Amino acid sequence: MDPTLILQLALALGLGLLVGLERERASDLVGIRTMPLVTLFGTLSGLLTPAVGPWMVPASLLGLSALLVLENRLRTRNEPAGPTTEVAALVMFSVGACLALYRVDVAIVTTGVVMLLLHGRKRLHEFASGLHGGELRSIARFVLIALVVLPLLPDRAYGPFGVLNPFQIWLIVVLIVGISLAGYVAHRSLGARVGTYLSGLLGGLISSTATTVSFARRAKRQLVTPRSAALVILLASIVVFLRVFIEIGIVTPDRLGELAPPLFAMMLWMSAIAGAYVLYRPLETIESEHPRDPSDLRAAIVFGVLYAAVLLLVAFARERFGASGLYAVALISGLTDMDAITLSTSQMMRADEIRSAVGWRMILLGALSNLFFKCVLAGVLGGRDLVRELALPIAVAFAGGFAIFFLWPADWFLT
């Protein structure tokens, strides 16, 4: 017997058992025995397709659907039930068919998703019922940005240096809005449970600059102490590096191993500063304000324009001035936004237009520039007391950042 065939049937049995085990306690229609049979049925239908004809899998799926509907109608239930189990059975039939087509990766990933959705039923319902009108509007706007606007844009380069691709630029906008929206929904869902530390962490995930502005104003109005506001700003600035890692991992994952260590060292350095600050300066619990909705279409367009401008500046600086010009652009663009310089740098590295040693230094300079800008914002909006709280931690952070910039070995990733 063909060992590949044995493996296909064994995988169908195993994946069906996984989902059937979860359904056993929730349904008397398709459980630990029936779900593996459904998956095996899908695999056998796929295997019989070359001999019987291309109609084998659709006909089998149609027959299974009719059987599930009939079985459901014949059963008497005290409480009405949704079609979750029946749909899961149809999906697992398709998983079996995927195995017959040698798409083991698709089958395994699909089974994992089915397991998560079935097992997380209670939490998913609680999450959905906890969403308010604001969160739903935000998700609807994100769908507009990602699934309506993006497909309409042309996927070709325009303008000087050939770097302005409308589709690619808006795809980056979708990425940034998606990351920020995840933090925003988490922040709104947690509600009153968001304290000092989560305010900083989630604020950095949404927008560290907006978080700085918000808490500087609250410190000025004496709604929070300067100590608490300073810690939130520090934590938000640390989480910026998590955003950086996510963005690099999506745009140029093959370079993440080269870029992450020096940037991670800076993140650890700032984390140590924040930890020392907490130990040295005890603070009280604060109530968090609701952040600004990051899915606003106007804000998305503004970021898209900013990102396009950074792409042009980086291309111009690289052609005219080399690495020194790129560092100047990183310092300028990092003042107000870290995402644009991170993503433009990642795209250049993906195209092998700059070396990794130059790329991570550009991102680090952008982070230091952004940190300086937030300190200035804190002073203008929050007053002298907040500046005094931030002065020493920011100075120490800058010292560590420039030490990494100048002393980190250029060929460390080759050893």
Uncertain runs with pLDDT below 50, 5 residues or more? none
Percentage of residues in strands: under 5%
H/E topology pattern:
HHHHHHHHHHHHHHHH
Helix content: over 70%
What does this structure look like?
Helix content is 78%, strand content 0%. By secondary structure, the protein is mostly helical. It starts with a helix and ends in an 8-residue tail after the last helix. The model has no long low-confidence stretch (mean pLDDT 78). The chain has helices at residues 3-23, 34-52, 56-74, 84-100, 104-119, 121-130, 133-152, 166-190, 196-220, 226-251, 256-280, 297-321, 323-333, 338-350, 356-382, 384-407. The longest helix has 27 residues, at 356-382. It contains 16 helices and no strands.
Summarize the structure.
The chain is mostly helical.
Descriptive keywords:
single chain; 415 residues; mainly alpha; 78% helix; 0% strand; elongated
Secondary structure blueprint with pairings:
Layout: H1 3-23, H2 34-52, H3 56-74, H4 84-100, H5 104-119, H6 121-130, H7 133-152, H8 166-190, H9 196-220, H10 226-251, H11 256-280, H12 297-321, H13 323-333, H14 338-350, H15 356-382, H16 384-407
Helix pairs in contact: 1-2, 1-4, 1-5, 2-3, 2-4, 3-4, 4-5, 7-8, 8-9, 8-12, 9-10, 9-15, 10-11, 10-14, 10-15, 10-16, 11-15, 11-16, 12-13, 12-14, 13-15, 14-15, 15-16
